[in-house]
Amino acid sequence: MLDIGLQELFAGIVQHGHGAIFALELLLTFLIVGVALSVTDHTRGAKGLGSAPLAIGLSITACESSCTFYSVGMNPVRMLCPAVVAAWSTKAHHTSNDWSRIWIYCAAPLVGGLLAGLVYRFVLNLKLNKNAEESSLSA
What is the pTM of this model? Predict the structure, then answer.
């Protein structure tokens, strides 16, 4: 892997433990769901400005690129399947396996997606509806 010094810069997130990893998982999911909701909403006034698949794909790419540095998965299955395989192999070799972080990778994306939906629905969508009403009244 190309070493450009980013691993040392971002290594602190892993050392901070469960809270920092939970927050990062939540934030990455929040960003992806927020982008997906905003570019696929047909009630918005800015129709036809850009490509929804491109925006969603670029947001996923940007978030996935941080997964290597931060030891996050952004997908519960991506962390759960290797843990299950590791548990099976360690049971065969009579060694221990650490499951202390599995709840983070399952709960944080759910909470992040839920928060993104709520913020979009009750904060951003209200502003969009208010702006649409003001522009229709002035026309």
Answer: 0.71
Does some domain include residue 1? Answer: no
8 A C-beta contact, residue 114 and residue 29: no
Written as six digits, the tokens of 107 are 């709960």
How confident is the model at residue 78, as a pLDDT? 76
pLDDT of residue 29: 92
Question: Distance between CA atoms of 84 and 98, rounded to whole angstroms?
Answer: 11
Which string of DSSP letters, residue by residue, matches 37-63? HHHH-TTSS-TTSS-HHHHHHHHHHHH
Question: Does any domain span residue 48?
Answer: yes
**For residue 85, is it within any domain?**
yes
d(CA 86, CA 121): 40
First to last CA, the chain: 57
The total of other beta-carbon atoms located within 10 Å of residue 4's CB is 8
User: Which residue in 64, 68, 58 sits closest to 6, CA to CA?
Assistant: 68
